[in-house]
Design a protein that fits this description.
294 residues; mainly beta; 12-stranded mixed sheet; Immunoglobulin-like; 2 domains; 3-stranded antiparallel sheet
């Protein structure tokens, strides 16, 4: 067998290298249920000759939201790290088209539009629980696994996109800082993504999404306080989101990217609908049901 003496180091034509200009990145999702209108603005870092983080927050941009007849400005909040406005300044209504525009002092400008969908009622929610044994720090621990299933009737004759979420509110015992003998029950929320689905090939049918959640301890402390090992499930909230195509495509690609654990598989590209940049401007309309734990 003859081995090649050719060097493994090859020069690459610069035309094949990725574009090195930094791009603005926007994440903004609106709904009629909003208690605040929020937008996160960052920028990508160049791949060649770059030092520092992959992306940086943009704090001096001009961010506007319009419904076609009225325009409002979203103001940057230093503490929260995003641009915000109150929904009463620009009510988010089903069926209306909204446009976000972002410009920066250096002349960059991007925009995107979305149509707010109507809401869909939840037909039924099924919640089941099972006791399971698992090992934590070498000890056998019995926990409760919950399965949440949300069921709804798809609207016939139109293309629809959905996402479902379950929120588990668990009470953890935290010692009272004023009196260590007392325990304060502190609610901690855990959100479980029941994933996304469209009505392709199932138009007008009964649809459902479900997923399991194992209610284990979420950590050794909450806000620096040692938690009580006794925890109690307080409430379960279930949300059904009817979404626009942009919200659906973005969150579907995000989930597939996070679940892509095969290093040999083709990478999943994150969906974007931002003209001149990256990210997503999408909309959804949510219906919620709340259940008190028994």
């Amino acid at each position: 067998m003859l081995l090649s003496c050719e060097s493994l180091v090859k020069e690459i034509d610069p035309s094949f290298l990725p574009e090195t200009d930094s791009k603005l990145v926007v994440a903004c999702f609106i709904s009629p249920q909003d208690t605040v209108l929020a937008a996160k603005v960052t920028e990508t870092k160049v791949l060649i000759g770059s030092n520092g983080d992959i992306k940086d927050d943009i704090t001096n941009a001009t961010v506007s939201l319009s419904d076609g007849s009225k325009i409002i400005q979203l103001i940057y909040n230093t503490k929260l790290g995003y641009y915000r406005a109150i929904p009463t300044a620009l009510p988010i209504l089903a069926g209306k088209t909204y446009t976000i525009t972002v410009s920066t002092p250096d002349g960059r400008k991007i925009n995107a539009s979305t149509i707010v969908p109507k809401s869909t009622d939840i037909k039924d929610v099924k919640i089941d629980s099972t006791k399971v044994n698992n090992f934590q720090q070498g000890n056998s621990v019995t926990n409760t696994e919950y399965e949440v299933k949300v069921i709804w009737q798809d609207k016939a004759g139109e293309i629809n996109y959905y996402r479902a979420i379950s929120e588990f509110i668990i009470l953890y015992g935290i010692p009272d800082p004023k009196n260590g003998k007392n325990v304060i029950n502190t609610p901690v929320s855990t959100f479980i993504d029941l994933r996304t689905i469209d009505d392709k090939d199932v138009d007008g049918q009964i649809l459902s999404l479900n997923r399991n959640f194992l209610a284990t301890n979420i950590g050794a402390n909450i806000q620096g306080q040692q938690i009580d090992q006794n925890k109690r499930l307080n409430k379960i909230k279930v949300g059904l989101f009817q979404t626009d195509i942009h919200y659906y495509n973005y969150h579907t690609s995000l989930r597939r990217q996070r679940e892509n654990n095969n290093p040999f598989a083709e990478p999943v590209l994150l969906y974007t609908n931002i003209n001149g940049g990256f990210g997503c401007f999408g909309a959804y309309n949510a219906t919620w049901q709340e259940f008190q734990a028994k």
